[in-house]
Write a structure and sequence with these properties.
The protein has 8 helices and 6 strands; from the N terminus they run ααββαβββαβαααα. With 213 residues, the chain is α/β, with parallel strands linked by helices.
């Protein structure tokens, strides 16, 4: 009986990693705009799904004032959870990028710009086309502006969302955070640099597995 109780405790205490790579029909809107969902490394805020089993977004609890990015421990947690790639959007000027290994897996951490989204879109596409490859994690300083812009662009690129719908999602998911120069102008300027890439089109079956309900 004591063994069963210990095993149950270990199961309940373990991080909720099991389903982060599952492609089960897309996240709900509530999950996409919630303040956080299960599976976030310690110190990460606004950890939310965008494309089921393919793309998650987030930021840092209290921001990242040193611009140092994910810690070694956070990278290892993401790697252990099955993530294959990570991008720090717009702020990681003091970040040590590179690859973190964890057993048989690895997590490739790179810099990104929300005004130059092509590289992130390509990485997402590569994961969609490789079901055995773990999801992409894109984050920014707080998890509400730049990571949200790249996520909104991914919804246009891979799920056929209109720009208007994607901007509405970005606005709802920023949790009331202010924007320098006004929020409409901020997100409009980002989308002015985004172009739909027909070479990254995916099938209806793939869309059904990952795109929001």
């Amino acid at each position: 009986m004591r063994f069963v109780a210990l095993a149950l405790f270990a199961f309940l205490a373990a991080p909720a990693y099991a389903d982060l790579s599952d492609r089960e029909g897309g996240p709900t809107r509530d999950a996409m705009i919630a303040r956080t969902t299960s599976g976030a490394p310690e110190g990460v805020a606004f950890f939310r799904p965008v494309l089921d089993g393919v793309l998650y977004r987030g930021g840092f609890s209290g921001g990242d004032k040193g611009r140092t990015g994910l810690s070694a421990g956070q990278r290892t947690e993401l790697c252990t959870a099955g993530f294959s790639k990570g991008f720090y959007a717009d702020f990681g000027k003091n970040t040590d990028y590179g690859t973190t290994s964890c057993g048989a897996g690895s997590f490739d951490y790179q810099s990104a710009r929300s005004s130059r989204p092509a590289g992130v879109m390509q990485a997402i596409y590569d994961v969609i086309k490789s079901p055995d490859e773990g999801p992409v994690y894109v984050h920014c300083m707080w998890g509400v502006h730049s990571s949200g812009a790249l996520s909104a662009m991914a919804l246009v690129q891979f799920c056929g969302w209109s720009e208007e719908k994607a901007k509405s999602y970005w606005n709802d998911a920023r949790n009331g955070a202010p924007c320098s120069g006004g929020c409409d102008g901020w997100i409009d300027a980002k989308f002015d640099r985004f172009t739909l890439d027909p070479s990254l089109s995916i099938s209806d079956v793939e869309k059904a597995a990952i795109c929001p309900e």
